[in-house]
Design a protein that fits this description.
The protein has 386 residues and is α/β, with parallel strands linked by helices. The chain has ten helices and 16 strands. It has an eight-stranded mixed sheet with strand order 1-2-4-3-5-16-6-15, sandwiched between helices. Bound molecules: zinc ion (2 copies).
Length: 386
Amino acid sequence: MKTTIASYLPELTALRRDLHQHPELGFEETRTAGIVAQMLGKYGIEVHTGWAKTGVVGVIKRGDSDRTIALRADMDALSLQEYSNLEYGSVNDGVMHACGHDGHMAMLLGAARYLAERGRFDGTVVFLFQPAEEGGGGGRLMVAEGVIDKFGIQAAYGLHIRSDLEAGHFATRPGTIMVATDNFEITVHGEGTHAALPHTGVDPIVTASQLVIALQSVVSRELKALDSAVLSITQFSSGSAYNVIPDEAVLRGGTRYRSPETGAALLEAMERVTAGVCSAYNARYTFQHMPGYPATINSPAETEAAVSAAGKALGADKVQGNCSLIMASEDFSYFLEKVPGCFAFLGNGTRTRAHRADFDFNDDILPLGIGYWVTLVEQELGERAE
Ligand SMILES: [Zn+2]
Ligand SMILES: [Zn+2]
């Protein structure tokens, strides 16, 4: 397998660098989608385009088993100006592949080629090239459009590079691996008046200030100590004059948490505390909750499968099967809400960090990611003994 994969590398490395040079933002990945579809077609794989606008799905069916697993790569770049002296640096101003999605696509295309040409398995592999991971919710849209049922997906696997992990090391964990993130906006409606006569109005600044403090006790006093959650207020805006008490004050911020139950408890407590504090000060309020990506929750059996495949492909000494939880979020979570599966990380090496203007995917790990994907498929869809 290694020699065959090595023979793909010149073409795949060039392809990866071409994707890097031509990054596209979420739901605008038209050039990228064209290339992905063309490569899948060239490998003789059935191609479906137009999923979640710019997403591409490839399907290989072999044998007569009805087992079906999906492998996912994300396609979008970040809104970030690249500063590098790479000869394949971004030609699109203010857009950059700074999260390794160029490498994710190249690894999945390499795996697709290997599996199409010589994969030994019985069942169906679905390759999900998903748009708009960086905030657009391309994963949510693909799931909403019915990708799971349409292709009969029974388990889903995702792989993302990590820039705080040594090159070629692999990390995952059962249960929540990445948290949910929500945003909120609270407007405290008071009654503006002259600063000299506060008793003639309702001061939204004093009310909102009390609210900022009161909300700090939600995580520390209402949640179990072992439930990971963060509540941060990041914006406080009000007023425009020295001598006027304004009509309203606006607080904005976000929460991060690891389970839907914790998210629901947080939200209930925040609204209750807001109502209580505002009532105490005679103010009214509007509370707006803006749900983000849910927590990414790995199922135990599929996580074990991923760890086992990574051990075979990369060496067991390179694999962490119980890594720590990451307080960021991922829209692969929407696939895992529907089917079991595992989201895992492959070390990119620690030379540059993701989401920075000098980041680059490490081409040395291309064959490792491909090896993991192929091993996983051949292990999970192993040919059944007659
Ligand atoms: Zn990413
Ligand atoms: Zn990212």
